[in-house]
Design goal:
elongated; 6 helices; alpha/beta; 7 strands; single chain
Length: 318
């Protein structure tokens, strides 16, 4: 029996086998490239870091040195002291920068980036860390701790803002009173302006009247000055010096006369009491003489004698 076969299906098994081998080779090449890129085939060693909390650490988290990936976290476990021990798998070729004074800390790449384990570069004069040795961990503040710290710092500011808002909203506060006073002042500004305009108009009128009166007075004064006889004025002014000299001489004479009068008064005043005493004695003698004559026969002594008036010697100073 003769069977006919389609020429397109000849050597089909061989083609499928070849395609499968090429696909497997491609997958192996990709795995090899990824392994080389991830340092999966390079020698590695393990370092241990002990932290008090495992929050933020995860298996497979990258380990970086100076921003360059050098390894990853391979294991996490609790020890006898309830501390978290973390194993860091690091490529051997980077061990020359990881010394005994190197440190490890958990940081974020950027503001909202992924968390990574960052290893600091050690001093070249320090020994390299050997496999399975511990590296020092520097605790960093988490988001919750940073939030609490920021809250503690912001709390006083918020309290002050609250107090300020309360002060502003207080109906009996100074600010509200000031605003009400400003409102009242604004309402009365128009009235004040009208009064000021009226006062300015009145002042302007008064100033105009004063100006007119001043102008009239100046004109009158100017006319008076113009009407003066300059020649007569000069003659009068020429006569003034001799007249003043005569007045000075008269004043000097009056002063001298006053001095002489005062001097004579001082000399005559002590003699006045003696003169008055002698005058009284003379009057007393005259009175006695008149009485004697009245009682004499020559003047009709048969008549009753007239009453005798006697003078009393008074005070010589009266």
């Amino acid at each position: 029996m003769i069977t006919q076969q389609d020429p397109r299906f000849r050597n089909l098994e061989r083609k499928i086998g070849l395609f499968t081998l090429l696909a497997l080779a491609g997958v192996a090449l990709v795995i090899l490239l990824v392994g080389i890129q991830k340092d999966l085939f390079s020698p590695k060693y393990t370092l241990t870091v002990t932290v008090d909390r495992g929050t933020g650490f995860t298996k497979g988290m990258p380990v970086k040195l100076s921003g360059f990936r050098i390894g990853r976290i391979t294991d996490m476990a609790l020890n006898e002291q309830a501390m978290v021990e973390i194993n860091l798998e690091i490529a051997k070729k980077y061990s020359k920068w990881i010394r005994s004074d190197s440190t490890v800390k958990l940081v974020k790449e950027g503001l909202v980036g992924d968390s990574i384990v960052e290893v600091s570069v050690g001093s070249l004069d320090k020994p390299e860390l050997k496999p399975d040795e511990s590296i020092t961990y520097l605790k960093t503040k988490g988001l919750d701790e940073l939030a609490d710290e920021i809250a503690e710092k912001v709390k006083p500011v918020l309290n002050e803002v609250r107090d300020i808002i309360g002060y502003v909203n207080d109906p009996n506060g100074d600010l509200k009173k000031t605003i009400r006073n400003l409102e009242l002042l604004t309402r009365h500004i128009e009235t004040t302006r009208s009064n000021a305009d009226t006062l300015l108009v009145s002042t302007t009128r008064n100033l105009e009247a004063i100006s007119n009166r001043t102008t009239t007075l100046l004109d009158t004064t100017t006319r008076k000055i113009d009407s003066l006889d300059v020649a007569k004025l000069n003659t009068t002014l020429d006569k003034l010096p001799p007249l003043l000299e005569k007045t000075d001489a008269a004043m000097a004479n009056i002063t001298a006369i006053s001095a002489e009068t005062k001097k004579l008064s001082q000399q005559a005043f002590p003699l006045i009491p003696g003169v008055l005493s002698r005058t009284e004695e003379l009057l007393f003698s005259t009175d006695r003489l008149m009485n004697t004559l009245n009682s004499s026969w020559l003047l009709g002594g048969s008549s009753a004698p007239a009453p005798v008036r006697s003078f009393k010697a008074g005070d010589s100073h009266d």
